[in-house]
UniProtKB/TrEMBL annotation, chain A:
PANTHER family: AMP-DEPENDENT SYNTHETASE_LIGASE DOMAIN-CONTAINING PROTEIN (PTHR43272:SF11), LONG-CHAIN-FATTY-ACID--COA LIGASE (PTHR43272). Residues 527-556 are annotated as: Disordered. One of its GO terms (molecular function) is long-chain fatty acid-CoA ligase activity. GO terms for cellular component: endoplasmic reticulum; membrane. InterPro entries: AMP-dep_synth/lig_dom (IPR000873), ANL_N_sf (IPR042099). This is AMP-dependent synthetase/ligase domain-containing protein. It comes from Lentinula aciculospora. Pfam families: AMP-binding. Residues 100-525 form the AMP-dependent synthetase/ligase domain.
UniProtKB/TrEMBL annotation, chain B:
Its main location: endoplasmic reticulum. PANTHER family: MEMBRANE-ASSOCIATED PROGESTERONE RECEPTOR COMPONENT-RELATED, NEUDESIN. One of its GO terms (cellular component) is endoplasmic reticulum. This is Cytochrome b5-like heme/steroid binding domain-containing protein. Residues 59-160 form the Cytochrome b5 heme-binding domain. It comes from the Eukaryota. It is found in: Endoplasmic reticulum. Pfam families: Cyt-b5. One of its GO terms (molecular function) is metal ion binding. InterPro entries: Cyt_B5-like_heme/steroid-bd, Cyt_B5-like_heme/steroid_sf, MAPR/NEUFC/NENF-like.
Length: 577, 165
């Protein structure tokens, strides 16, 4: 016979038990869902767009935080006008720069001593001379840079070692600062150039061997760094007039995509705006502070590496660079960008690294190593991976979850060492990050990974993802293997525009896609074609359409970066390969 | 009954518990089939379309005239060779507005002389108004209006002679 209603609703003790369990499980599922680190509604509009665009161009895009009406931030703090202001006098704690534990006051003293000593012993003139810094990243680089800028003597730096001979030929410096190990090579180059009439002054960091000293020609004067500092320490310091923020304090030479040598002039404003850009990479809840330790794989000879280093100086963090950032080696081999390279920075006496500025190859090697190590515990890893991916697809990532404790902490410790637990943010720059690496990297390292777009003509990042943005569109890409990760909106002091855009496609709603031009305080002015002569004596005339040539300023001050890029509907940009 | 957990309610609870536990222990890790267009539908979402932008075009008096707004389309007007999109001010410049005469026309003379009469407008097939006979203060007045319009409305083009295109 058919069961009646009262038969169906029979309850007993088991019902109550099951009911309680069901209620608990329901509450668990509802309230224990991972909360996204940043609300997705904010990621729907990352750039501010102008209302009008010229034919063949896209609209002008700015960072949403800056907006269309506001002025660009020029400096990280209102008192920072010139380079030497980045060494803050009000900060009294000491921090470690490479191997030297130093306070800001001591650093300023050393800078003043070195500047005075150099002016006296090398007979340099403020605003007349220029000095070539042939140094690998070390504290002497920073001291020299700060000292020269305070006396308005432009420094010249190279972004790659093979640029040395073209630069020596076209822009002969008044003095050169280099390492003792590199001195023989440099002397050879000078002698080969055959300019016997010219005097050369070389300041050497370290102790050159007596054999090398014996081979020095009479026209070349060799000074030891320690002597110069000591000389400057003894005598009253020479005070030069304060440089203006718009003065050029450094010229960085780099090779563009065509292999031509380009030079770009960095002013104080460019650098302070670049430091403000780096400062803005970090979310308000996790700003750079003096408790951090920054490890950078970007050489100080380039604009981006310089911005990172000075941002670290300004915030009072400890700082060191990796082996691959060294430009001048004795042997011809290049350092591979892998995990060993990342760990090479830890060999200095800095505390455990918290913020890493890496290149995509480093990240690839790190992630590969960690995931491979995690796969050793097969079953647990299957669960851990699944849970982590589910978390990331909800916008949440953290180092403190159960799966980290079970699987990933051990994997990270095996690959990175004991310092694995302190890494809290990774910023990827100076390279193109593949799209399918971004989410595995977030799972493996369980910390924000910020992808940026950099260029040798811009101080600091040009585009940067929101720090807490975990969105991933790679699974729906047409070409998942070759597509690149998005680089986000322009940074706070940059406005960007695309040229060569297909108007009819954009009017129909397609994503604007074209070549990138930018404008803003961190964008440096490149040396024009007439100022750059190739060694053969011909003037380097930029070829018309080539957007990566040196003379690429438009009438309104837009600088072409030679990158093909596409805008997504949420205002983030993505490089087109 | 195929199986018996005592009562139907117990069965229902048990199934619910098993389902929820399965969802907790094995969360779905497959990405959605297509990119959601709403932030509520998914974390990795993209808006459906870009922010609307207007293409900067070159207009002649003849091509500007259709934008008079009488057909509920865009309303444009030109001052001093600059074309403004005043669709947002339909109540002023639309067909029934106070300044409706200016829609789709060159309003330079009217702005300078502070008049909305039809005599201020030149027929579309004639050359552009050269504004030679205006006083300096009227020219300043017109420039003030250009300033006002630049702040309030979108500059979306420039006005040239009929045969210049």
């Amino acid at each position: 016979m058919a069961p009646s209603i009262s038969d169906l609703l029979v309850t007993d003790d088991l019902t109550i038990l099951l009911g309680l369990i069901a209620g608990t499980v329901f509450l668990l599922r509802t309230f224990y869902r991972p909360q996204p680190l940043v609300h997705p509604i904010l990621l729907g509009r990352q750039s501010e767009v102008t209302k009008v665009r010229n034919p063949g161009e896209s609209a002008v895009y700015r960072n949403y935080g800056t907006g269309l009406m506001n002025r660009f931030p020029l400096r990280p703090h209102k008192d920072v006008q010139v380079l030497s202001d980045l060494v803050r006098s009000d900060m009294e704690t000491s921090r470690t720069l490479w191997n030297t534990k130093i306070t800001n006051a001591t650093l300023q003293d050393r800078v003043a001593s070195f500047g005075t000593g150099l002016l006296r012993m090398a007979q340099l003139q403020s605003q007349e001379s220029n000095v070539l810094l042939l140094l690998n990243d070390c504290i002497e680089f920073l001291i020299a840079d700060l000292a020269l800028s305070s006396h308005s003597i432009p420094s010249m730096t190279l972004a790659a070692p093979h640029l040395l001979s073209p630069v020596l030929d076209t822009h002969p410096p008044s003095a050169i600062i280099t390492h003792a190990e590199f001195l023989p090579t440099l002397l050879e180059l000078i002698y080969d150039a055959g300019e016997e009439g010219r005097h050369h002054t070389i300041v050497v960091v370290g102790e050159p061997s007596s054999r090398v000293m014996a081979s020095v020609a009479s026209k070349v004067k060799i000074l030891l760094w320690t002597d110069v500092e000591r000389e400057g320490f003894k005598v009253p310091k020479i005070m030069s007039p304060l440089p203006k923020p718009s003065d050029v304090f450094s010229v960085s030479f780099f090779a563009d995509a065509n292999g031509h040598v380009q030079g770009t002039q960095i002013t104080h404003i460019n650098l302070t705006a670049g430091v403000a850009g780096i400062h803005a990479l970090f979310p308000v809840s996790a700003l750079l502070s003096s408790l951090d330790t920054v490890v950078s794989s970007h050489s100080l000879g380039g604009t981006y590496g310089r911005a990172v280093a000075y941002a670290a100086i300004f915030e009072g963090t400890s700082f060191a660079t990796t082996e691959s950032s060294k430009l001048f080696h004795l042997d011809e081999g290049t350092v591979k960008q892998d995990v060993t390279d990342v760990l090479s920075a830890q060999l200095y006496s800095i505390p455990s690294a918290t913020i890493l500025f890496l290149k995509p190859a480093h990240l690839d090697a790190l992630v590969d190593g960690i995931l491979r190590d995690a796969k050793k515990s097969f079953l647990l890893n299957a669960f851990a991976w699944r849970h982590k991916i589910a978390g990331v697809s909800e916008g949440f990532v953290s180092k403190d979850t159960l799966w980290d404790r079970l699987v990933y902490d051990a994997a990270r410790a095996n690959v990175i060492g004991e310092g694995a637990g302190t890494v809290r943010t990774i910023v990827v720059g100076e390279g193109l990050l593949p799209a399918n690496l971004l989410t595995p990297a977030r799972v493996a390292l369980s910390c924000p990974i910020i992808n940026t777009l950099t260029h040798p003509a811009v101080v600091g990042p040009v585009f940067a993802l929101h720090a807490l943005d975990l969105q991933d569109f790679s699974t729906l890409e047409e070409d998942p293997v070759n597509s690149l990760a998005p680089v986000g909106p322009p940074t706070v002091s940059i406005e960007a525009k695309l040229l060569g855009v297909n108007d009819s496609a954009v009017e129909n709603g397609a994503d604007p896609s074209g070549t990138l031009v930018v404008r803003g305080p961190p964008v440096t002015k490149q040396l024009s074609g007439e100022e750059l002569e190739t060694p053969s004596g011909y003037v380097n005339v930029p070829t018309g359409e080539s957007t990566s040539s040196g003379n690429s300023d438009d009438e309104d001050g837009w600088t072409a970066l030679g990158v093909k890029i596409r805008v997504l509907t949420n205002g983030a940009f993505r490089v087109v390969v | 009954m195929a199986f018996d957990v005592g009562t139907p309610i117990n069965t229902a609870f048990l199934l619910f518990i098993l389902y929820s536990v399965q969802k907790i222990v094995f969360p779905s890790s497959s990405p959605p089939k297509e990119i959601p267009n709403e932030f509520r539908s998914g974390y990795s979402w993209l808006p459906k379309s870009h922010q609307p932008t207007v293409l900067f075009k070159t207009y002649t008096p003849k091509t500007l005239e259709p934008f008079h707004g009488r057909d509920n389309g865009r309303i444009l007007l030109a001052i001093n060779g600059i074309v403004f999109d005043v669709t947002a001010g339909r109540s002023f410049y639309g067909p029934n507005g106070m300044y409706g005469n200016f829609a789709g026309r060159d309003a330079s003379r009217g702005m300078a002389k502070q008049s909305f009469d039809v005599e201020m407008l030149i027929p579309v097939d004639q050359p552009l108004d050269k504004l030679i006979d205006l006083q300096p203060d009227e020219i300043d007045n017109m420039k003030g209006w250009v300033e006002h319009f630049s702040n309030k409305y979108i500059i979306c083009g420039k006005l040239v002679e009929n045969d210049a295109v």
